[in-house]
Amino acid sequence: MAELALHIDGLTKSYNNGKQALKGVSLDVPAGSFYALLGPNGAGKSTLINILADIVRPGDGSISLFGHDLFADRAWCKRHMGVVPQEVAFDPFFNPREVLKITSGMFGVKPDMTWIDELLGRLELTEHCNKNTRQLSGGMRRRLLVAQALVHRPPLVILDEPTAGVDVELRRRLWDFMRELNAAGTTILLTTHYLEEAEELCDHVTIVDKGTVVADRPMRELMRDVAGRYLWLSYGDDFVLTQEDEVALSAFQPRTNGKGVSLTLRHVEGAASSFHAAYEAAVTRFGPPQDAGVRQEDLEDVFIRLTHENDDKVNA
Ligand SMILES: Nc1ncnc2c1ncn2[C@@H]1O[C@H](COP(=O)(O)OP(=O)(O)OP(=O)(O)O)[C@@H](O)[C@H]1O
Ligand SMILES: [Mg+2]
After folding, report:
1. pLDDT grade, residue 315 (50/70/90)?
2. Is the Cβ atom of 315 under 6 angstroms away from ligand 1?
3. Residue 296 above 90 pLDDT?
4. How far is CA 234 from CA 5, 262, 282, 285, 296, in A?
Protein backbone atom coordinates (compact mmCIF):
# COMPACT_ATOMS: atom_id res chain seq x y z
CA MET A 1 0.00 0.00 0.00
CA ALA A 2 1.16 3.51 -0.76
CA GLU A 3 2.57 5.50 2.14
CA LEU A 4 -0.07 7.58 3.91
CA ALA A 5 0.70 11.18 4.76
CA LEU A 6 -2.39 11.29 6.92
CA HIS A 7 -4.59 8.53 8.26
CA ILE A 8 -7.74 9.43 10.18
CA ASP A 9 -9.96 6.73 11.61
CA GLY A 10 -13.38 7.21 13.20
CA LEU A 11 -12.80 10.80 14.32
CA THR A 12 -15.60 12.31 16.37
CA LYS A 13 -16.06 15.70 17.99
CA SER A 14 -18.85 17.15 20.07
CA TYR A 15 -18.54 20.75 21.19
CA ASN A 16 -19.50 21.78 24.71
CA ASN A 17 -22.87 23.03 23.50
CA GLY A 18 -23.69 19.47 22.40
CA LYS A 19 -23.12 20.13 18.70
CA GLN A 20 -21.80 16.96 17.11
CA ALA A 21 -19.48 18.37 14.45
CA LEU A 22 -17.77 15.10 13.45
CA LYS A 23 -19.66 11.81 13.56
CA GLY A 24 -16.91 9.31 12.87
CA VAL A 25 -14.87 10.60 9.95
CA SER A 26 -12.25 8.37 8.37
CA LEU A 27 -9.95 9.37 5.55
CA ASP A 28 -6.60 8.42 4.08
CA VAL A 29 -4.39 10.96 2.36
CA PRO A 30 -1.71 9.22 0.29
CA ALA A 31 1.73 10.80 0.42
CA GLY A 32 2.21 13.07 -2.59
CA SER A 33 -1.46 13.69 -3.25
CA PHE A 34 -3.29 16.97 -3.76
CA TYR A 35 -6.36 16.27 -1.66
CA ALA A 36 -9.58 18.28 -1.48
CA LEU A 37 -11.71 18.19 1.65
CA LEU A 38 -14.99 19.73 0.59
CA GLY A 39 -18.31 20.34 2.22
CA PRO A 40 -20.99 22.97 2.76
CA ASN A 41 -20.76 25.54 5.57
CA GLY A 42 -20.82 23.83 8.93
CA ALA A 43 -19.89 20.39 7.54
CA GLY A 44 -17.05 19.93 10.00
CA LYS A 45 -14.00 20.70 7.82
CA SER A 46 -12.45 23.30 10.11
CA THR A 47 -13.21 21.19 13.15
CA LEU A 48 -11.16 18.38 11.62
CA ILE A 49 -8.32 20.70 10.61
CA ASN A 50 -8.31 22.44 13.98
CA ILE A 51 -7.98 19.06 15.69
CA LEU A 52 -4.92 18.41 13.51
CA ALA A 53 -3.57 21.84 14.42
CA ASP A 54 -4.14 21.25 18.14
CA ILE A 55 -6.59 24.16 18.33
CA VAL A 56 -9.63 21.97 19.06
CA ARG A 57 -9.68 19.01 21.43
CA PRO A 58 -10.66 15.76 19.66
CA GLY A 59 -13.33 13.28 20.67
CA ASP A 60 -12.72 9.62 19.78
CA GLY A 61 -10.77 8.22 16.89
CA SER A 62 -7.17 7.98 15.83
CA ILE A 63 -4.94 10.11 13.63
CA SER A 64 -1.47 9.39 12.33
CA LEU A 65 0.94 11.35 10.17
CA PHE A 66 3.40 9.36 8.11
CA GLY A 67 2.81 6.50 10.55
CA HIS A 68 3.34 8.64 13.68
CA ASP A 69 0.45 8.84 16.14
CA LEU A 70 -0.62 12.49 16.35
CA PHE A 71 -1.65 12.40 19.99
CA ALA A 72 1.33 10.36 21.20
CA ASP A 73 3.90 12.19 19.12
CA ARG A 74 2.65 15.78 18.77
CA ALA A 75 6.10 17.32 18.54
CA TRP A 76 7.21 15.13 15.64
CA CYS A 77 3.88 15.68 13.84
CA LYS A 78 4.03 19.46 14.30
CA ARG A 79 7.43 19.58 12.65
CA HIS A 80 6.15 17.55 9.71
CA MET A 81 3.00 19.48 8.92
CA GLY A 82 2.12 23.08 8.20
CA VAL A 83 -1.43 24.14 8.91
CA VAL A 84 -3.22 27.26 7.71
CA PRO A 85 -6.29 27.60 9.94
CA GLN A 86 -9.40 29.38 8.71
CA GLU A 87 -9.24 32.10 11.34
CA VAL A 88 -6.23 33.57 13.03
CA ALA A 89 -5.14 36.67 14.79
CA PHE A 90 -1.62 37.95 14.29
CA ASP A 91 0.41 39.78 16.85
CA PRO A 92 0.05 43.30 15.44
CA PHE A 93 3.52 44.48 16.40
CA PHE A 94 5.49 42.46 13.89
CA ASN A 95 5.97 42.74 10.16
CA PRO A 96 5.65 39.73 7.84
CA ARG A 97 9.37 38.89 7.78
CA GLU A 98 9.54 38.98 11.59
CA VAL A 99 6.43 36.81 11.84
CA LEU A 100 8.07 34.18 9.64
CA LYS A 101 11.29 34.27 11.66
CA ILE A 102 9.34 33.79 14.88
CA THR A 103 7.32 30.97 13.34
CA SER A 104 10.54 29.17 12.33
CA GLY A 105 11.63 29.34 15.94
CA MET A 106 8.32 27.89 17.07
CA PHE A 107 8.97 24.87 14.87
CA GLY A 108 12.41 24.53 16.36
CA VAL A 109 14.23 25.36 13.14
CA LYS A 110 16.76 28.09 12.49
CA PRO A 111 15.16 30.76 10.30
CA ASP A 112 16.21 30.12 6.70
CA MET A 113 16.21 33.72 5.41
CA THR A 114 16.69 32.65 1.78
CA TRP A 115 13.58 30.48 1.97
CA ILE A 116 11.69 33.15 3.92
CA ASP A 117 12.46 35.74 1.24
CA GLU A 118 11.49 33.30 -1.46
CA LEU A 119 8.18 32.63 0.31
CA LEU A 120 7.52 36.35 0.69
CA GLY A 121 8.22 36.77 -3.01
CA ARG A 122 6.09 33.85 -4.16
CA LEU A 123 3.21 34.96 -1.97
CA GLU A 124 3.64 38.53 -3.23
CA LEU A 125 4.28 40.02 0.16
CA THR A 126 7.76 41.44 -0.46
CA GLU A 127 6.50 44.96 -0.96
CA HIS A 128 4.44 44.74 2.23
CA CYS A 129 7.34 43.51 4.31
CA ASN A 130 7.75 46.65 6.34
CA LYS A 131 4.11 46.94 7.35
CA ASN A 132 2.85 45.76 10.70
CA THR A 133 0.50 42.82 10.33
CA ARG A 134 -2.44 45.01 11.40
CA GLN A 135 -1.81 47.16 8.32
CA LEU A 136 -2.19 44.18 5.98
CA SER A 137 -5.39 43.61 4.02
CA GLY A 138 -7.43 40.45 4.52
CA GLY A 139 -5.99 38.82 1.40
CA MET A 140 -2.42 39.70 2.46
CA ARG A 141 -3.03 38.15 5.87
CA ARG A 142 -4.20 34.93 4.32
CA ARG A 143 -1.05 34.81 2.19
CA LEU A 144 1.09 35.42 5.25
CA LEU A 145 -0.66 32.49 6.93
CA VAL A 146 0.23 30.31 3.96
CA ALA A 147 3.87 31.45 4.26
CA GLN A 148 3.81 30.59 7.97
CA ALA A 149 2.62 27.08 7.24
CA LEU A 150 5.46 26.57 4.76
CA VAL A 151 8.31 28.17 6.67
CA HIS A 152 9.72 24.88 8.01
CA ARG A 153 9.28 23.09 4.67
CA PRO A 154 6.86 20.45 5.98
CA PRO A 155 6.09 17.36 3.85
CA LEU A 156 2.35 17.76 4.59
CA VAL A 157 0.57 21.09 4.19
CA ILE A 158 -3.02 21.55 5.35
CA LEU A 159 -4.85 24.64 4.19
CA ASP A 160 -8.28 25.68 5.43
CA GLU A 161 -9.62 27.96 2.69
CA PRO A 162 -6.25 29.42 1.75
CA THR A 163 -7.72 31.57 -1.00
CA ALA A 164 -10.80 33.01 0.74
CA GLY A 165 -10.75 36.74 0.08
CA VAL A 166 -7.78 36.53 -2.28
CA ASP A 167 -8.42 38.19 -5.64
CA VAL A 168 -8.66 36.13 -8.79
CA GLU A 169 -5.20 36.81 -10.25
CA LEU A 170 -3.38 36.22 -7.01
CA ARG A 171 -5.46 33.14 -6.38
CA ARG A 172 -4.29 31.70 -9.66
CA ARG A 173 -0.65 32.40 -8.80
CA LEU A 174 -1.09 30.96 -5.33
CA TRP A 175 -2.49 27.76 -6.84
CA ASP A 176 0.45 27.63 -9.26
CA PHE A 177 2.76 27.78 -6.29
CA MET A 178 0.83 24.98 -4.54
CA ARG A 179 1.03 22.92 -7.69
CA GLU A 180 4.81 23.39 -7.80
CA LEU A 181 5.17 22.37 -4.16
CA ASN A 182 3.04 19.31 -4.84
CA ALA A 183 5.08 18.40 -7.91
CA ALA A 184 8.19 18.60 -5.74
CA GLY A 185 6.69 16.02 -3.38
CA THR A 186 4.69 17.99 -0.78
CA THR A 187 1.35 16.44 0.14
CA ILE A 188 -1.40 19.05 0.16
CA LEU A 189 -4.79 18.83 1.83
CA LEU A 190 -7.08 21.79 1.42
CA THR A 191 -10.60 22.97 1.89
CA THR A 192 -12.13 25.45 -0.48
CA HIS A 193 -15.50 26.65 -1.67
CA TYR A 194 -14.05 27.28 -5.15
CA LEU A 195 -15.13 23.96 -6.60
CA GLU A 196 -13.96 24.70 -10.10
CA GLU A 197 -10.44 25.15 -8.80
CA ALA A 198 -10.64 22.03 -6.66
CA GLU A 199 -11.73 20.04 -9.69
CA GLU A 200 -8.82 21.35 -11.72
CA LEU A 201 -6.12 20.97 -9.07
CA CYS A 202 -6.91 18.08 -6.80
CA ASP A 203 -6.41 14.41 -7.54
CA HIS A 204 -8.60 13.18 -4.70
CA VAL A 205 -11.81 14.49 -3.19
CA THR A 206 -13.57 13.78 0.07
CA ILE A 207 -16.90 15.45 0.64
CA VAL A 208 -18.17 15.81 4.19
CA ASP A 209 -21.63 16.92 5.13
CA LYS A 210 -23.02 17.31 8.64
CA GLY A 211 -20.04 15.56 10.14
CA THR A 212 -20.06 12.48 7.89
CA VAL A 213 -18.18 11.54 4.74
CA VAL A 214 -20.56 11.35 1.76
CA ALA A 215 -17.95 10.77 -0.96
CA ASP A 216 -14.32 9.74 -0.94
CA ARG A 217 -12.87 9.11 -4.39
CA PRO A 218 -10.06 9.96 -6.75
CA MET A 219 -11.28 13.09 -8.55
CA ARG A 220 -11.16 11.43 -11.96
CA GLU A 221 -13.23 8.47 -10.80
CA LEU A 222 -15.83 10.66 -9.14
CA MET A 223 -16.24 12.76 -12.26
CA ARG A 224 -16.38 9.68 -14.49
CA ASP A 225 -18.83 7.67 -12.39
CA VAL A 226 -20.96 10.24 -10.61
CA ALA A 227 -20.99 13.35 -12.81
CA GLY A 228 -23.90 13.02 -15.23
CA ARG A 229 -23.96 13.89 -18.92
CA TYR A 230 -27.12 15.04 -20.59
CA LEU A 231 -28.19 15.41 -24.19
CA TRP A 232 -30.49 18.36 -24.62
CA LEU A 233 -32.71 18.54 -27.73
CA SER A 234 -34.76 21.61 -28.38
CA TYR A 235 -38.15 21.36 -30.15
CA GLY A 236 -39.71 24.80 -29.65
CA ASP A 237 -42.25 26.29 -27.29
CA ASP A 238 -45.16 23.86 -27.59
CA PHE A 239 -43.19 20.71 -26.83
CA VAL A 240 -45.07 18.13 -24.75
CA LEU A 241 -43.61 14.97 -23.28
CA THR A 242 -46.42 12.39 -23.08
CA GLN A 243 -46.50 9.38 -20.83
CA GLU A 244 -45.90 7.16 -23.88
CA ASP A 245 -42.80 9.22 -24.69
CA GLU A 246 -41.56 8.74 -21.15
CA VAL A 247 -42.03 4.99 -21.42
CA ALA A 248 -40.36 4.82 -24.84
CA LEU A 249 -37.36 6.83 -23.64
CA SER A 250 -37.25 5.48 -20.09
CA ALA A 251 -33.67 4.23 -20.54
CA PHE A 252 -32.62 7.89 -20.72
CA GLN A 253 -34.77 9.27 -17.89
CA PRO A 254 -36.28 12.00 -20.10
CA ARG A 255 -37.11 15.39 -18.63
CA THR A 256 -38.66 18.45 -20.19
CA ASN A 257 -39.03 22.14 -19.50
CA GLY A 258 -41.69 22.53 -22.19
CA LYS A 259 -39.23 23.49 -24.92
CA GLY A 260 -37.48 20.23 -25.56
CA VAL A 261 -36.20 17.14 -23.90
CA SER A 262 -33.16 16.29 -21.80
CA LEU A 263 -31.84 12.73 -21.88
CA THR A 264 -29.37 11.22 -19.43
CA LEU A 265 -26.27 9.79 -21.08
CA ARG A 266 -24.63 6.87 -19.39
CA HIS A 267 -20.99 6.05 -19.22
CA VAL A 268 -20.56 2.94 -21.36
CA GLU A 269 -17.35 0.99 -20.92
CA GLY A 270 -15.29 1.27 -24.09
CA ALA A 271 -17.50 3.96 -25.65
CA ALA A 272 -17.67 7.70 -25.04
CA SER A 273 -21.28 7.47 -23.85
CA SER A 274 -24.72 6.47 -25.03
CA PHE A 275 -24.90 9.69 -27.09
CA HIS A 276 -25.84 8.05 -30.41
CA ALA A 277 -28.50 5.82 -28.94
CA ALA A 278 -30.08 8.77 -27.13
CA TYR A 279 -30.01 11.01 -30.18
CA GLU A 280 -31.50 8.33 -32.45
CA ALA A 281 -34.23 7.53 -29.92
CA ALA A 282 -35.23 11.19 -29.68
CA VAL A 283 -35.24 11.70 -33.45
CA THR A 284 -37.33 8.56 -33.96
CA ARG A 285 -39.85 9.86 -31.46
CA PHE A 286 -39.93 13.61 -32.15
CA GLY A 287 -38.12 14.15 -35.46
CA PRO A 288 -35.00 16.24 -35.99
CA PRO A 289 -34.46 18.82 -33.22
CA GLN A 290 -34.03 22.55 -33.81
CA ASP A 291 -30.89 22.48 -31.75
CA ALA A 292 -29.01 20.03 -29.57
CA GLY A 293 -26.10 19.96 -27.16
CA VAL A 294 -24.42 17.91 -24.48
CA ARG A 295 -24.07 19.17 -20.96
CA GLN A 296 -21.48 17.66 -18.65
CA GLU A 297 -22.00 18.03 -14.91
CA ASP A 298 -19.07 19.56 -13.10
CA LEU A 299 -17.87 19.08 -9.53
CA GLU A 300 -20.29 21.76 -8.35
CA ASP A 301 -23.29 19.81 -9.71
CA VAL A 302 -22.03 16.59 -8.13
CA PHE A 303 -21.34 18.36 -4.86
CA ILE A 304 -24.85 19.83 -4.70
CA ARG A 305 -26.44 16.50 -5.53
CA LEU A 306 -24.42 14.53 -2.96
CA THR A 307 -24.88 17.03 -0.17
CA HIS A 308 -28.62 17.37 -0.83
CA GLU A 309 -29.12 13.61 -0.84
CA ASN A 310 -27.66 13.72 2.64
CA ASP A 311 -30.38 16.17 3.75
CA ASP A 312 -32.93 13.43 4.43
CA LYS A 313 -30.49 10.98 5.96
CA VAL A 314 -28.86 12.99 8.72
CA ASN A 315 -30.34 15.35 11.23
CA ALA A 316 -28.78 18.77 11.30
N1 LIG B 1 -16.46 26.34 19.09
C2 LIG B 1 -17.61 25.81 18.71
N3 LIG B 1 -18.61 25.57 19.60
C4 LIG B 1 -19.76 25.02 19.21
N5 LIG B 1 -20.04 24.64 17.95
C6 LIG B 1 -19.10 24.83 17.03
C7 LIG B 1 -17.83 25.43 17.35
N8 LIG B 1 -17.09 25.51 16.21
C9 LIG B 1 -17.86 24.99 15.23
N10 LIG B 1 -19.06 24.58 15.71
C11 LIG B 1 -20.15 23.93 14.95
O12 LIG B 1 -19.65 22.72 14.42
C13 LIG B 1 -20.13 22.50 13.10
C14 LIG B 1 -18.95 22.36 12.14
O15 LIG B 1 -18.30 23.62 12.02
P16 LIG B 1 -16.97 23.80 11.17
O17 LIG B 1 -16.44 25.14 11.46
O18 LIG B 1 -16.10 22.63 11.41
O19 LIG B 1 -17.57 23.72 9.69
P20 LIG B 1 -16.86 23.98 8.27
O21 LIG B 1 -17.10 22.76 7.46
O22 LIG B 1 -15.47 24.41 8.47
O23 LIG B 1 -17.72 25.18 7.66
P24 LIG B 1 -17.29 26.46 6.75
O25 LIG B 1 -17.32 25.97 5.34
O26 LIG B 1 -18.38 27.44 7.03
O27 LIG B 1 -15.95 26.94 7.21
C28 LIG B 1 -21.06 23.69 12.81
O29 LIG B 1 -22.36 23.28 13.08
C30 LIG B 1 -20.59 24.74 13.77
O31 LIG B 1 -21.66 25.61 14.11
MG1 LIG C 1 -14.43 26.06 8.02
Report:
1. very low
2. no
3. no
4. 50, 9, 11, 13, 17
Between CA 266 and CA 225 the distance in angstroms is 9
Average pLDDT over residues 191-217: 95
* Distance from the alpha carbon of residue 13 to the mean position of ligand 1, in angstroms: 11
Is there a contact between 263 and 246 (Cβ–Cβ < 8 Å)?
A: no
**For ligand 1, atom 1: residue with the closest CA:** 15
Average of per-residue pLDDT across 238-249 = 94
Question: How do strand 81-84 and strand 156-160 relate by DSSP bridges?
Answer: parallel
Atom of ligand 1 at shortest distance to CA of 211?
A: 14
Query: Which range marks the domain in which residue 283 is found?
Result: 228-296
Same domain, 217 and 236: no
Residue 268 has pLDDT above 70, yes or no: no
Look up the CATH number of the domain holding residue 276.
3.30.70
Residue 53 sits in the same domain as residue 160: yes
What tens digit of pLDDT does each residue of 66-101 get? Answer: 999 999 999 999 999 999 888 777 777 889 999 999
> From the CA of 153, how far away is ligand 1's center (Å)?
29
Q: State residue 316's pLDDT score.
A: 43
How far apart CA 15 and CA 42 sit, in angstroms, is 13
Protein residue with its CA nearest to atom 25 in ligand 1: 41
Ligand 1 atom closest to the CA of 46, numbered from 1: 22
Q: Give residue 213's pLDDT.
A: 97
Residue type, 150: L
Atom 30 (ligand 1) nearest CA: 42
Contact 44, 100 (CB under 8 A): no
- CA-CA distance, 188 to 74, in Å (whole number)? 19
Q: How many structural domains does the chain have?
A: 2
pLDDT of residue 122: 93
Residue 58 lies inside a defined structural domain of this protein: yes
Alpha carbon 241 to its chain centroid, in Å, reads 39
Helix, strand, coil percentages (3-state) for the chain, rounded to 5, are 40, 25, 35
Name every residue whose Cβ is closer than 8 Å to that of residue 88 and which is 6 or more positions away in sequence.
Answer: 141, 145
